[in-house]
């Protein structure tokens, strides 16, 4: 998807920053993002991991993350030419045109430059079980309701015209520790992607990235009691990242959108 004239300051990969963003938009306080120090499932023997240690540490590294995890957001290096490479890979992919309540994965085509963190967040809260945590009458509730019946161009127009969404993003970006780039039109050298279950009909696992033509069906059907940190989900996510990185599974960072019992 070609970027338009509008550009945002890139978001830092910080769980507190992303949690503040979703709460500002109107998600339940029971939801929060948490750092993931590994994408290896428990008891994995894979030592090529983001934490720099062996897979035998996976149990302890995941133990502090609340469950269930409703979505994963992964940040990967995106060197110059990243979107062009995606476009080449998707030559034969049919562009997503889903809409309405039966749309299996709610998808937003990204046209706002350097806003991939925002689009990743919207994909995380608009799909799977996270939809049950949208507080009625809030901005995110109204935005999802507005966008649900719209096709791609309608959703693009809705997001580009949404001043409240832009303000929430700007507030989140201002809380980052890194100084904003001198020129926000220069593409960031990282990309956000989201992993979610389908909205309806199944536990199918998808990779969703606004600069792609469509969500990617990862061929994994999760059971009702399998969340995004289940063994099968993590193995599938790691496999996708390894393929995207030409065999490399380090250099990324990851967050999980989790339910925290008792939080208000």
Structural features, described:
With 264 residues, the protein is an alpha+beta fold. The protein has one domain (15-259): Peptidase C12, ubiquitin carboxyl-terminal hydrolase (Ubiquitin C-terminal Hydrolase UCH-l3, 3-Layer(aba) Sandwich), CATH 3.40.532.10. It has helices at residues 15-25, 58-63, 82-89, 116-126, 139-147, 152-160, 163-174, 231-244; strands spanning 31-36, 69-77, 190-197, 204-208, 216-221, 253-259. A hairpin with a 7-residue loop joins strand 4 and strand 5. Mean pLDDT is 90; it is low at 51-55.
Compact summary:
The chain is an alpha+beta fold and 264 residues long. The chain contains 8 helices and 6 strands; from the N terminus they run αβαβαααααβββαβ.
Give a topology summary.
Elements: H1 15-25, E1 31-36, H2 58-63, E2 69-77, H3 82-89, H4 116-126, H5 139-147, H6 152-160, H7 163-174, E3 190-197, E4 204-208, E5 216-221, H8 231-244, E6 253-259
Antiparallel strand pairs: 1-6, 2-3, 2-6, 3-4, 4-5
Region (Disordered): 41-60
Catalytic activity: Thiol-dependent hydrolysis of ester, thioester, amide, peptide and isopeptide bonds formed by the C-terminal Gly of ubiquitin (a 76-residue protein attached to proteins as an intracellular targeting signal)
Family: Belongs to the peptidase C12 family.
């Amino acid at each position: 998807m070609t970027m338009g004239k509008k550009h945002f300051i890139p978001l830092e990969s910080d769980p507190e920053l992303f949690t503040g963003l979703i709460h500002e938009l109107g998600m339940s306080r029971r939801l929060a993002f948490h750092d993931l120090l590994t994408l290896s499932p428990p008891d994995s023997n894979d030592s090529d991991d983001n934490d720099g240690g062996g897979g035998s540490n996976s149990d302890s590294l995941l133990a502090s993350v609340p469950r269930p995890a409703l979505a994963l957001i992964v940040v990967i290096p995106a060197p110059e030419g990243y979107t062009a490479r995606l476009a080449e890979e998707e030559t034969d992919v049919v562009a997503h045109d889903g809409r309405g309540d039966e749309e299996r994965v709610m998808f937003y085509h990204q046209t706002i430059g350097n806003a991939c963190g925002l689009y990743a967040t919207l994909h995380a809260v608009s799909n799977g079980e996270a939809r049950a945590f949208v507080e009625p009458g809030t901005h995110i509730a109204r935005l999802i309701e507005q966008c649900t019946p719209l096709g791609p161009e309608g959703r693009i127009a809705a997001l580009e015209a949404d001043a409240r969404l832009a303000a929430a993003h700007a507030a989140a970006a201002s809380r980052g520790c890194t100084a904003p780039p001198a020129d926000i039109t220069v593409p960031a050298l990282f990309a956000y992607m989201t992993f979610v279950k389908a909205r309806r009909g199944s536990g199918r696992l998808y990779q969703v990235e606004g600069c792609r033509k469509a969500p990617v069906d990862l061929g994994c059907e999760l059971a009702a009691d399998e969340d995004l940190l289940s063994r099968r989900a993590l193995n599938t996510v790691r496999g996708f990242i390894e393929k995207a990185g030409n065999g490399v599974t380090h250099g990324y960072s990851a967050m999980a959108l989790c339910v925290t019992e008792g939080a208000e």
